[in-house]
Input
Amino acid sequence: MPDVFKRWLYKRWLALIARTITLCNSLVSALFPCVVNAMNDVLIKLGFVPFFAQQLADPVVLESRLGRVISVQRSVAMVACGDQRRNVELTLNLQQAEPVDRPTVGDWVILDETHTRIEQVLERKSLFKRIGSGNTTQFQPIAANIDVVFIVSSCNDEFKESRLERYLALCDEAGAIPVIILTKVDLLDDAGGYIERARSVQSGVAVEVVNALDPSTLDGVKGWIEGNSTIALVGSSGVGKSTLLNALAEETLAATGSIREDDKKGRHTTTHRELYFLASGGLIIDVPGMRELRVADVDDALGHVFEDIEELSEKCRFIDCKHMNEPGCAVLAAIEEGRLSGRRLASYQKLVRENEFATSTLAEKRAKDRSFGKMVKGGKLHKEKTGRRGPL
Ligand SMILES: Nc1nc2c(ncn2[C@@H]2O[C@H](COP(=O)(O)OP(=O)(O)OP(=O)(O)O)[C@@H](O)[C@H]2O)c(=O)[nH]1
Ligand SMILES: [Zn+2]
Output
């Protein structure tokens, strides 16, 4: 399928999702007027859709105790609740939950009756997550309930195909639509080479090119912000995420900082994740540049991002071909003939290895946690029984 057609399909797909959401909203209003009274404009501007309404049995919760997480600092979260912003604590249960189950930016949450604590996190419709940095093998949630991810990269030495492939795999796993945004196009005579390279990282992926300092170049990017959709801005420090956010918002919402001249790296100006509201509609989560972006559970996602390699490997002589030096390897033949780059195969193999290792470590950990949970439960049960026996 030609790339232009795939990009067109992506845009149509986004428009279809927006229309479906509007249609669902109308259906819910016709069928459940009380729910919809509560699903007022404010909630809808916060990105509320029927997917979340279905999880709430009590309309009172909808009216007064539902909120969207704007930012989280340790055990305190800033939550948009109606027209107000509240600093609320996480309950002890949530503080002790697995990191991935704790509230994160973009989550819909239910507060307790005093509006001082988060009681529950609603099921997410999407979640961008990575394996946390350091020695951990736990998922760290980055942004929840996002529709589109702007993967930002600049037209200079920072640009790396392998980094984009990693972001694309995480985005696919998250269940969001990826758009690669190339910034700093004003510093080049011709950005054609960067555009070509960006398009080569996933068949049909959308690529937009901007000078984030010049609002007149942003029409293509704005086309991806439909209604009250939520967008996550990800990419290395210094690529211009906060600059782009400010330009889209037409006001200074986030601080920006200069980059180092020698290696074009940023200075990690943005230090925490935060959800911002655009006056024109739409919500944007600015994510600080992440030094490490480890993947897990991206088996299917790698199949989508590296569709070309997976298609070629079906023609390899051996079904378990690793494309190292096996005879009859269709992938190596494609490299030999210049139809595939060696860099892309190396990047694919690296991600496959990393994914296999991290996914099996996670599975082991989950199994251990389950058996530990059973042991604790067993012990508690025993105590309760002993307690009840009392006088014996
Ligand atoms: N010439 C030019 N400079 C840009 C562009 N986008 C951003 N910059 C500059 O690049 C520098 C870094 O921009 P930021 O917006 O702070 O980058 P960031 O991605 O938010 O960085 P972190 O907050 O550290 O993650 C600033 O000096 C911006 O003015 C662009 O399109 N063209
Ligand atoms: Zn092969």
User: Anything to note?
Assistant: The pocket of guanosine-5'-triphosphate (ligand 1) is lined by residues 183-184, 186-187, 210-213, 235, 237-243, 256-259, 266-270, 288-289 (CB under 6 Å).
